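Write out this protein's structure.
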Amino acid sequence: MNNNQELIHFTVKIELDSNDSANFTYFRDGKEVSGGGVVRTETAGIYTLEPTTITSGFLFTGATITNKKGDCAGDFSYKVSDDSQSIIIIDSNENNGTVCLIFNVECNGKAYESADPQVENEDIF
């Protein structure tokens, strides 16, 4: 991360449903949000697991970022941090387009993936 990036902090809650599927809920400033959005400048999204999710055994293992529209997936990188309790998604916002952003987590040795909170890169002009 650098000083020119916009920082966006998300809290992530993950719960298993009756089918053993992981349901991801994203919060920003205490309000539920999609977890994605439109980016108009170089941005770092910091996604941190909330305490009950950590107690349940969930940890971030990575992210899968693919092009959905345009060619901007190469603008993205990620870093797992804080003992796998956070993941930082960095977007250089050099190219327009939309990506599929899938979070990879593990809980008690079993891997899970999030649904896609899409991120769209857009010119600021």
